[in-house]
Write a structure and sequence with these properties.
This protein is α+β, with helices and mostly antiparallel strands. The protein has helices at residues 6-14, 34-51, 85-93, 95-107, and strands at residues 21-29, 55-61, 76-82, 108-116. Pfam families: DUF1330.
């Protein structure tokens, strides 16, 4: 079940808001038509993302894991870049996005949302 942690969101939004944030979405779809409903969600969400200056950097289907251990893997991963934390906050509060999110949540069995910021010296 996809559910935001209010405490984690509060900490995330309280930090400096002056750099882009990339949101890593690791997704497992519900059986049957979850993947198709997720595509429908993205069709609805894309113009809303654009209004808030966000863009999808990557979206891909998961392949079998190459590492050993207890990790089970994910059906898909999506990277979405937001210009700042406020853009994410405002988008999530947008009534149009909330309608699209209902479709998205109906498609998802499990999700991890991991905000990331640029790692200096890596690229």
């Amino acid at each position: 079940m996809a559910e935001l942690s209010p405490a984690a969101v509060e900490v995330f939004l309280s930090e400096a808001d002056d750099t882009p944030i990339v949101m890593l979405n690791l997704i497992n779809f519900k059986p049957d038509d979850g993947r198709e409903r997720y595509r429908q969600y993205h069709k609805m969400a894309k113009p809303i993302l654009a209004r808030f200056g966000a863009q999808i950097l990557f979206g891909g289907d998961g392949l079998p894991l190459l590492t050993a251990g207890p990790a089970a893997g994910w059906d898909a991963a999506v990277l979405v870049q937001y210009p700042n934390r406020s853009a994410f906050k405002n988008m999530v509060a947008d009534p149009g996005y909330q309608e699209a999110f209902k479709v998205g949540i109906s498609a998802i069995a499990d999700i991890v949302l991991q905000p990331m910021k640029h790692m200096h010296g890596l690229i």
